[in-house]
Amino acid sequence: MNSRMSRVVGALAILLLAAAPLYLAPFTLTLLNFIGVYALVALGLVLLTGIAGIISFGQAAFMGIGAYATAWLTTRMGLSPWLGLPFALVVTGLGAMVLGAATLQLRGHFLALSTIAWGLAIYFTFGNVEGLGNFNGIRDIPPLSIGGWQLLGSDQIYYVIWIFLLGAMLLSRNLLDSRTGRAMRVLKGGNLLTESLGINAFAVRLATFVIAALFTAVAGWLYAHMNRFISPTPFDATMGIEFLMMAMVGGSGYLLGAVVGAAFITLLKNSVQDYLPLIAPNAAGQLEIVVFSALFILFLQYAREGIVPYVAGWLPEGKPKRPAESEPLPPRDKPATGEPLLSVDKATRRFGGLVAVNEVSFDLRAGEILGLIGPNGAGKSTMFNLLTGAMPVSGGRITFAGRDVTRQPQRAIARAGVARTFQHVKLRPRMTLLDNVLLGAYTRTKSGFVTGALRLDREEERRARSEAMRQLERVGLGDRPYELAGNLPLGTQRVLEIARALAADPVLLVLDEPAAGLRSREKQALGELLHNLRKEGLTILIVEHDMEFVMNLVDRIVVMEFGSKLCEGEPAAIRADERVQEAYLGGSA
Ligand SMILES: Nc1ncnc2c1ncn2[C@@H]1O[C@H](COP(=O)(O)OP(=O)(O)OP(=O)(O)O)[C@@H](O)[C@H]1O
């Protein structure tokens, strides 16, 4: 859909929603209220699971914290439900920070398991605290009221629920289209990629976790004042699983998926509860879970991405406008040509008994192109990891631009101006070429979560986009900024990685085996690109297995063998060196 058409459809949907109390029965409105509340939780999960790749079964527990916080404040302390909202947000936000700090270092299924553990722990805590009414819960929660007018009917709180939901969707949409949103989206590509872009992966994971919990807290607050009675049951593990199902069924990578998923599951649950007794009159309660599970398995088999992308696939695609030309981002300070830039002094790396890099030393000056070559297993990649901070040295010292960076984390080295590419290309395949390149400009821009969500970042964003466009053009990909990176052939993906690195305006560009796996024509195109960059005076360190590929490109070559430096010199001298011929050319090359 083009943006005009989607605006018309959006406006129509909002109009239909706004008029819903006029044409829907109270029961249907109550269902819509539940859908709205659940969609808020699912929206948090879209950000957390669909975007950032963190699976959580524990969102129901966060919803419970929000609900209990406001219920306690309004019934025990007698304060206004409107004060219950900030209170619910603070309590849930703090809870999420503590839990996130304790668990987000875990990976994959360990992290998912931990969410089940704390979800259960919170549920049982609700049931065992006397001040929270134990398993009987808290009743007589006051309704929301506006200037003495109590929002008692389902048609009144309806507006509050849907305004909060639409507001949360708008903030999320803005956020995803911002610098921090891109940082959230890159998390799925793994820590190595994320940190190489100068992004603090843990901080972004934690922030996403807290944002998801805050949306959930709002849902809990709405739920408490809508239902006016809460007990631990609606916040148990089953509900945690249902929320995850909502996000996945709707389409966990899409904001609209939260609403569609919440609607689908709520309506389905409702009709299953209505019709199941007719089919199985003697069945004990909760048989709908069995139906649900069966449907979920079918869904996982046939429409894993969810309903929204499935439907969107049938609609015509829109053509976004090319980013407008804008003032460039401020350039980095770079040392003058010929000044010492990188100094590796007796760098060593051991893996148990194996010395992968053994006291290797070399220097690199600004404006120079250095090739680091050697046969398989010589230690090139390990050396590369040491100087980009992807791996700590076991000994020795690395200095970059006059700073000792020996034990600095990868993101600090990236922020200092070292941009890298990967031997096994690391792009975000479902992001556009433009967004992938924008990731490279992360260290040159500043806007954070709040400025992004409130759209206060537009000026910086315009400049960053224009910069990313320039880099795409520089590498010859300027004609298709909105294509998905995953659609490109390997050779072009490598070129795109280089564009991403260039968007960082690097002081040093480090290329890890850029020619690996390329066909000869792709290799030729890459060679031309690198020659052009060389002419522009870029400082490049290139780690490469293919000796012929680097020979015409570099000023100097360092040859490694068995983890040690074998020799160093200009390409012609290296080519003539007998030791190199023996170790490399005559060997495995
Ligand atoms: N994480 C690791 N754990 C244990 N050993 C490792 C690790 N990484 C590398 N090694 C070992 O260190 C040695 C050097 O490997 P490295 O990958 O740095 O060589 P390379 O020159 O890049 O080789 P290639 O051209 O095949 O990529 C090899 O013997 C390798 O098996």
Task: Give the key terms.
2 domains; ATP hydrolysis activity; binds adenosine-5'-triphosphate; BCA_ABC_TP_C; single chain; ATP binding; Rossmann fold; six-stranded mixed β-sheet; 56% helix; alpha/beta; 11% strand; branched-chain amino acid transmembrane transporter activity; 589 residues; elongated
Based on the coordinates given, report the CATH architecture of the largest domain.
3-Layer(aba) Sandwich
Q: Helix count, per DSSP?
A: 24
What integer is the average pLDDT? 90
Principal-axes shape call: elongated
Low-confidence stretches: none
InterPro entries: AAA+_ATPase, ABC_AA/LPS_Transport, ABC_transp_permease, ABC_transporter-like_ATP-bd, BCA_ABC_TP_C, LivM-like, P-loop_NTPase
Subcellular location: Cell membrane
Pfam family, one: ABC_tran
Membrane topology: Multi-pass membrane protein
Structure description:
One of its GO terms (cellular component) is plasma membrane. The structure is a single chain. The model has no long low-confidence stretch (mean pLDDT 90). 46% of the residues are buried. The strands form three sheets. The protein has a six-stranded mixed sheet with strand order 8-9-10-5-11-12, sandwiched between helices. A hairpin with a 2-residue loop joins strand 3 and strand 4. Helices cover 56% and strands 11% of the residues. By secondary structure, it is an alpha/beta fold. The chain has two domains: 205 residues, no CATH class; 249 residues, P-loop containing nucleotide triphosphate hydrolases (Rossmann fold, 3-Layer(aba) Sandwich), CATH 3.40.50. It is elongated and about 85 Å long. It binds adenosine-5'-triphosphate. The site of adenosine-5'-triphosphate (ATP) has 12 residues, from strand 4 and helix 15.
